[in-house]
Amino acid sequence: MASRKKVSELQRPLWLLTPGGLLMTLIILIPLLLAIWISFIDLDQYTLRRWVEAPFIGIGNYVESFESGLPKSIWLSVSFAVLSTAVTVPIGIAAALVTQNAYRGRALVRAVFLIPYVLPSFVVASVWRTMLQPDGIVNETLGLGSTLWLSGSNSYWTLVLVEIWAAWPFIYLMALAGLQSVDNEVHEASAVDGTTWWPKLTRVILPYLRGPVLLACLLATLNHINNFTLPFVLFGAPAPDDVNVMPMLVYVTSFQGLRFGLSAAMAVLSLVLIAIPLYAYLRAVRLDVDK
Amino acid sequence: MSAQAEAQRLLPRPLLAVFTVLLCAMVLVPLAYIVLASLNSDVGVASGEFWPSSFTAESYTKIWTTADLSTGIVNSLIVCAVTAVASALLGTTTAYVLVRYTFFGRLTILRGLVGLQSIPGTLMLLPVFVLFSSAGNYLGLTVIGTRWGLFVAYLTFALPFSTWVMVTYLRGLPRELEEAARTEGASTITILWRIIIPLSLPAIVVSGIFAFLLGWNDVLFASVLTRPETHTAAVALSFFGSAQEGGALPVYSQMMAAALICAAPVVILYLVFQRYLVGGLTAGGVK
Q1: pLDDT over 70 (residue A144)
Q2: In CATH, what number is assigned to the domain containing residue A205?
Q3: ipTM exceeding 0.95?
């Protein structure tokens, strides 16, 4: 046994890594390092084509980014992400609970629950944008006259509500996976004890969901912070002040303001922002076969 | 209802009914409006009808001339299909080595594969854009605005994702078959081709579909790296949506039809591969 292992270690076909590894180095690692480099140089539309020669300005871009709307965008992104996650968790868990027991038509209900998740983000944003127009169906149905949903101070709540509409099925899926890990004995024991539904739910069932739902929360929060498509398609660029979240700020600074160095500094800072949930997520994910 | 099913009941019946109805309504009411509006006329939708006064499919025929949707769909299909095939195949071989052999830096690579799925897209797009736009200057190549440039850009997300999907699948595959083949003298290529790929075909398809969806759903990269002839469906729809506002008569009905057309390929993929895709979504994360 020991000798066989040794042989297979000697024959490790690491060359098989070359195509994938080389490509990933070329298109991921090098660009990421370049992004960090760009954040230290004064790169704009004039120096773009000859970026090698663009002047090095140290932390100038980082200093400037704090003066050009970054703190507000960080606050908007974080509050938007946390709020969206906080609201989708109870909805997702409730959805998992109501589809756990078999009944006629359950498959159909489960399919319906997946719809917002399956629809592409740009489709969701496009249709909500249309429905939320001043003369659109939402104002028509709710009798709100021509309330503005896509500009001004309402836009933040529009962003949160549409994100919630689109994102809760992810929590639902993860909660469902957690529910399915509950053994039948647990149900039977509760039934024998005569536990009523509420204590059973809170004391017995929900603890089973803690792991998967916490993981889902981390991932969902990361996805909310990184969500570019929804604000971009809902509001267009440049976005109204109240929905100028991190990805929108970086996008507008680089591709409309053409200040590539400045926006690279902002993008690097947004990576620092997600580092905490990302670190927690990487710790929680099972990386290896043996663990 | 059997005693066992009764024991598994989590919520009292009335509560269950109320929640189910509420959740379904939350999804289905907007969806019903979208479908109804797409079957209405533009005038009907503009006058605020929920239920069309007359049903017509004219929005589905008009939209092809109003918006440049067909170019977008063709471009999306080409770029995403190539991305899907390339990242599924490369992902499979890379994942196989990552799962079966230990070497220096392996855990870092695995961590990187997971981490890359959560880094901001803008952080990736910026350097890619700078490299692409200077390629003309340094290498004499035009990259921005081409389909293959977009394909390379999509690989930055699709490749790590497909590789990770394959890692989660391959680590559950027993080693015995490979070891038996190896004692028979089979080479690594033979083992990959004859054993690993046939055994993991469903997972390879899933990783390819996910790569396809990443591309199909992308707006960020495509909005910067394409020009009108190479627009993807997502960009065509988004631009159409923002262009029609402020016009004399908004074409909301056509907008809804266009949105449903763009969603159709994705919905069809999910309907066909539902079991695999939904399983794959949650399999990656749970410890």
Answers
A1: yes
A2: 1.10.3720.10
A3: no
